[in-house]
């Protein structure tokens, strides 16, 4: 077998492989003999069909099967021989597959980039710190009470904190626009779930009122065709309801799956949950910042095959997230929606692996155990969860991967210029993307 490799771009390689004719013909002959032992043809006893007849009848199909196997085998042998690691499957083009002549094909594929990590010591990182203050705890308890509020219709004018049931339709330049209409929509005033000005315009409205709202869509609105547009919403108020908050008692505590039987133990459990949520949020934002800087200082080119594969993963996740399951083909979602996110994920993954390799980092068993124990604490039977992780190799490997990422973050932080910044609890738990949008 002869192999030649051509570099066609930074990451693309074109490999030409020539396989001796004898190998093809020998494999075809062996397959014909195997077929002759099992094939049934009228006029011949089983196993007695002449090889010539079998070759005439089945030879073309057998040859195609052999060629397919030879391509797979010889490509694998060739990349091993040339010490090349493909980043995705090859595109195969046949150059010569005539009987009696050497078989030749080209395989075009991408390879992983060669990475030389940039010095991380010049990177500046802001590490946010926070704690749960008493006022944060009281605010959370009020939020939990509001989640369990009973709503009672009233003839009074709507005020902040009240819930209105409305029908509405939006117009731009006198024309109704897609997605701007709803009926029987429940809206809590002050929740900021609608665009600026919408909820404020319903303060003072009563059941049966018709209200016209003049609002402007934000410049950063998710729908491109509505960004910055002035709109008029015609709203019909069906009802106004005021909330009645539940008492802080054992009945309420049980609704949140907590074991507390009195207010003090309830506060302890709520604070513990808040601290765990805050710790995880700060950890995720710090990791995101560290990896963002890692990408910024290491301008690497990534294989399009890996990006394409990650785009498909993200599309599948999006379908599952919105409850589509097997009923929706993920291919219906445009690739462009996920391209930037996929490229960043692939880039981070390659750089993280390089940090691991360069520093010979291995998952710390104690950290793996601690991580699993922390995850198990959110379940009623922690020991069963811990045992399950350690009996499930796939799940255990997922935890090890998370721990490895944490160790990479520690490695990078050790060489970076880190400044601690104290932030409020609400700021601490806010998702990183939301913070970036508001900056």
Automatic annotation (TrEMBL):
Record-listed E.C. numbers: 5.2.1.8
One GO location term (cellular component): cytoplasm
HAMAP family: Trigger_factor_Tig
Superkingdom per UniProt: Bacteria
Residue ranges constituting the PPIase FKBP-type domain according to the UniProt record: 161-243
Main location: cytoplasm
EC class: isomerase
InterPro entries, per database record: PPIase_dom_sf, PPIase_FKBP_dom, Trig_fac, Trigger_fac_C, Trigger_fac_C_sf, Trigger_fac_ribosome-bd_bac, Trigger_fac_ribosome-bd_sf, Trigger_fact/SurA_dom_sf
Organism (species): Neptunomonas concharum
GO molecular function terms listed in the Swiss-Prot or TrEMBL record: peptidyl-prolyl cis-trans isomerase activity; protein folding chaperone; ribosome binding
Family: Belongs to the FKBP-type PPIase family. Tig subfamily.
Key words of the record: Cell cycle, Cell division, Chaperone, Cytoplasm, Isomerase, Rotamase
Protein name from the UniProt record: Trigger factor
UniProt free text on domains: Consists of 3 domains; the N-terminus binds the ribosome, the middle domain has PPIase activity, while the C-terminus has intrinsic chaperone activity on its own.
Subcellular location: Cytoplasm
GO biological process: 'de novo' cotranslational protein folding; cell division; protein transport; protein unfolding
Catalytic activity: [protein]-peptidylproline (omega=180) = [protein]-peptidylproline (omega=0)
Role description: Involved in protein export. Acts as a chaperone by maintaining the newly synthesized protein in an open conformation. Functions as a peptidyl-prolyl cis-trans isomerase.
């Amino acid at each position: 077998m002869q192999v030649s490799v051509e570099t066609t771009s930074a990451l693309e390689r074109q490999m030409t492989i020539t396989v001796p004719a004898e190998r093809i013909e020998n494999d075809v002959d062996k397959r014909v003999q195997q077929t002759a032992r099992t094939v049934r043809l009228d006029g011949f006893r089983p196993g007695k069909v002449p090889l010539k007849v079998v070759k005439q009848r089945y030879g073309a199909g057998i040859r195609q099967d052999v060629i397919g196997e030879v391509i797979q085998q010889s490509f694998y042998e060739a990349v091993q021989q040339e010490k090349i690691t493909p980043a995705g499957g090859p595109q195969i083009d046949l150059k010569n597959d005539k009987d009696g002549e050497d078989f030749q094909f080209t395989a075009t594929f991408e390879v992983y980039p060669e990475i030389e990590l940039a010095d991380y010591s010049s990177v500046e990182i802001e590490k946010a710190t926070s704690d749960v203050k008493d006022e944060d705890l009281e605010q959370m308890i009020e939020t939990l009470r509001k989640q369990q509020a009973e709503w009672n219709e009233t003839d009074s004018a709507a005020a902040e904190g009240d819930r209105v049931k409305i029908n509405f339709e939006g117009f731009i330049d006198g024309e109704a626009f897609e997605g701007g209409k709803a009926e029987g929509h429940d809206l809590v005033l002050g929740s900021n779930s609608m665009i600026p000005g919408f909820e404020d315009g319903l303060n003072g409205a009563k059941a049966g009122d018709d209200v016209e709202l003049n609002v402007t869509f934000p410049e950063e609105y998710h729908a491109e065709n509505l960004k910055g547009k002035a709109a008029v919403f015609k709203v019909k108020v069906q009802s106004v309801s005021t909330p009645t908050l539940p008492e802080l008692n054992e009945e309420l505590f049980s609704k949140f799956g907590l074991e507390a039987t009195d207010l003090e133990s309830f506060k302890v459990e709520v604070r513990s949950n808040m601290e765990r949520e805050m710790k995880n949020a700060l950890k995720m934002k710090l990791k995101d910042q560290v990896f963002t800087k890692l990408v910024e200082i290491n301008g690497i080119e990534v294989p399009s095959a890996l990006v394409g594969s990650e785009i498909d993963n993200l599309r599948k996740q999006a379908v599952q997230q919105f409850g589509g399951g097997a009923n929706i083909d993920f291919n219906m979602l445009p690739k462009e929606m996920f391209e930037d996110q996929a490229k960043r994920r692939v880039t981070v993954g390659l750089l993280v692996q390089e940090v691991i390799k360069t520093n010979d980092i291995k998952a710390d068993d104690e950290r793996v155990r601690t991580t699993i124990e922390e995850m198990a604490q959110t379940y009623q039977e922690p020991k069963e969860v811990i045992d399950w992780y350690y009996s499930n190799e796939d799940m255990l490997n997922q935890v090890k991967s998370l721990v490895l990422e944490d160790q990479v973050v520690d490695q990078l932080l050790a060489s970076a210029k880190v400044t601690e910044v104290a932030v409020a609890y609400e700021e601490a738990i806010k998702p990183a993307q939301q913070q970036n949008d508001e900056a």
